């Protein structure tokens, strides 16, 4: 058994990099009673976080102490239960299958106190096709010695937002509206001309009255299945700078330097921006409309693929069951343009004032 000093030394060495990685153990070994430290040998039953990549700031590791392994287990359990690519598999089998595809499950602990923690968790996208990873903000609370994690879309998430000291006033306002989905009811598949849920004046992801070129019409955020929620843009006269579609609270999903940002807007919608470079780091930060997020790029910090610099922009909301999901663009007005699906993914177009713009067309971003 490692001495207390040697354990502290090992943790300190990892903390210097700001990264703690949970490594699967082949066999069980005796350990002290109580909660295991990060990296401690697991019991005979596999831990939900075995094989999961864990990012944790030194400050969060200090605040959590010996409970950090239990926290990561709780978050990992929720992530693997929610992931489309892990459905029907045990935690061990899901992580192993994803690893065989070169994909990681990541739990990033950003901030923590003795009984609260929050951060980001995601499952990397396949690197063989264009598309977004699966990712969630989470908040966890330790009650009676047990961590209860809530991912975006869970009722626990909404409950934790209301009470956690790690959520600021402005962020709580936006996140509560998002969790309770204070927007018009979602339609199954709105058609052009139908009264789709109001997007509350969302802009396209660059400055108003400048243009970018639509390179991909409405398509799934994964590039394969799911609601056609995403658009691709490149070039134009906006200097390649990607900006938020509306005010809200922003989080850099991959951490500092990563090309994926999520902004939660008032009124029940959020937007994702992927493949950026030279990004601004945000961690639940309040931002204004058209705040600078980064520049169009080819970053794949959480998987997927990108051919040529562009931004992969996606619209998200919640359904009536508090289930976070990407949502249809078809029938919605974004940036002054009414968007419609095409006959296949990536082929959809937009209309404004009698003008139709399809992939390959420069589109001006209009606020009205």
Can you describe this structure?
InterPro entries: Dup_hybrid_motif. It comes from Streptomyces californicus. Residues 32-51 have a biased composition (Low complexity). By secondary structure, the chain is an alpha+beta fold. It has two domains: 9-27 and 35-167, no CATH class; 211-364, Glucose Permease (Domain IIA), CATH 2.70.70.10. The protein is 18% helix and 29% strand. It has six helices and 20 strands. It has helices at 4-17, 58-64, 68-82, 91-100, 155-163, 169-180; strands at residues 53-56, 105-112, 116-123, 134-143, 146-151, 211-220, 228-234, 241-243, 248-252, 261-264, 269-274, 283-287, 292-295, 311-318, 324-326, 333-334, 337-340, 349-352, 355-357, 362-364. Strands 6, 7, 9, 10, 11, 12, 14, 15 and 20 form a nine-stranded antiparallel β-sheet that branches. It has a five-stranded mixed β-sheet with strand order 1-2-3-4-5, sandwiched between helices. A four-stranded antiparallel β-sheet has the order 16-17-18-19, with no helix packed on it. β14 and β15 form a beta hairpin. α5 runs antiparallel to α6 (169-180). Mean pLDDT is 82; it is low at 1-44 and 182-196.
Roughly what fraction of the amino acids lie in strands? 25-35%
Let me know the average pLDDT: 82
- CATH superfamily caption of the largest domain: Glucose Permease (Domain IIA)
Indicate the CATH topology of the largest domain: Glucose Permease (Domain IIA)
Characterize the overall form: globular
Unreliably modeled segments: 1-44, 182-196
Query: How many domain units?
Result: 2
CA-atom Rg in angstroms = 21 Å
**SS-derived structural category:** alpha+beta
- Helix amount: 10-25%
Give the topology string: H per helix, E per strand: HEHHHEEEEHHEEEEEEEEEEEEEEE
Could you give a short account of the major beta sheet? 9 strands, antiparallel
- The N- to C-terminal Cα distance equals 67 Å
CATH architecture group name of the largest domain: Distorted Sandwich
CATH class of the largest domain: Mainly Beta
| Number of DSSP-assigned strands | 20
Number of helices: 6
Oligomeric state of the chains present here: single chain
Signal peptide: 1-28
Organism: Streptomyces californicus
Region (Disordered): 31-53
Keywords: Signal
């Amino acid at each position: 058994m490692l001495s207390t000093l040697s354990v502290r030394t090992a943790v300190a060495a990892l903390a210097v990099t700001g990264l703690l990685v949970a490594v699967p153990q082949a066999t069980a070994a005796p350990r002290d009673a109580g909660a295991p430290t990060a990296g401690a040998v697991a019991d005979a039953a596999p831990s939900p976080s075995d094989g999961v990549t864990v990012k944790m700031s030194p400050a969060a590791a200090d605040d959590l102490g010996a409970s950090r392994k239990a926290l990561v287990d709780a978050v990992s359990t929720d992530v693997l239960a929610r992931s489309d690519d892990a459905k029907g598999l045990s935690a061990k089998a899901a992580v192993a299958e994803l690893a065989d595809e070169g994909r990681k499950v990541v739990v990033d602990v950003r901030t923590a106190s003795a009984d609260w923690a929050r951060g980001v968790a995601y499952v990397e996208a396949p690197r063989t096709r264009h598309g977004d990873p699966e990712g969630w903000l989470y908040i966890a609370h330790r009650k009676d010695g047990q961590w209860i994690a809530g991912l975006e879309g869970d009722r626990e998430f909404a409950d934790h937002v209301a009470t956690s000291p790690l959520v600021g006033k402005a962020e709580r306002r936006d996140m509560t509206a998002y969790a309770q989905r204070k927007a018009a009811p979602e339609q199954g598949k709105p058609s052009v001309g139908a009264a789709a849920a109001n997007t509350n004046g969302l802009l396209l992801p660059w400055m108003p009255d400048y243009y970018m070129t639509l390179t991909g019409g409405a398509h799934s955020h994964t590039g394969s299945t799911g609601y056609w929620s995403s658009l691709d843009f490149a070039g134009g006269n906006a200097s390649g700078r990607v900006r938020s579609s509306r005010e809200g609270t922003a989080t850099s999903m991959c951490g500092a330097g990563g090309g994926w940002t999520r902004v939660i807007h008032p009124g029940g919608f959020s937007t994702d921006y992927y493949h950026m470079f030279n990004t601004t780091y945000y961690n639940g930060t309040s931002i204004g409309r058209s705040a600078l997020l980064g520049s169009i790029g080819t970053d794949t910090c959480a998987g997927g693929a990108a051919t040529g610099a562009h931004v992969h922009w996606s619209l998200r909301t919640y359904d009536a069951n508090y289930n976070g999901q990407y949502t249809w663009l078809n029938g919605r007005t974004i940036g002054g343009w009414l968007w419609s699906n095409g006959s296949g993914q990536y082929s959809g177009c937009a209309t404004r004032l009698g003008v139709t713009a399809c992939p390959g067309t420069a589109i001006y971003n209009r606020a009205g």
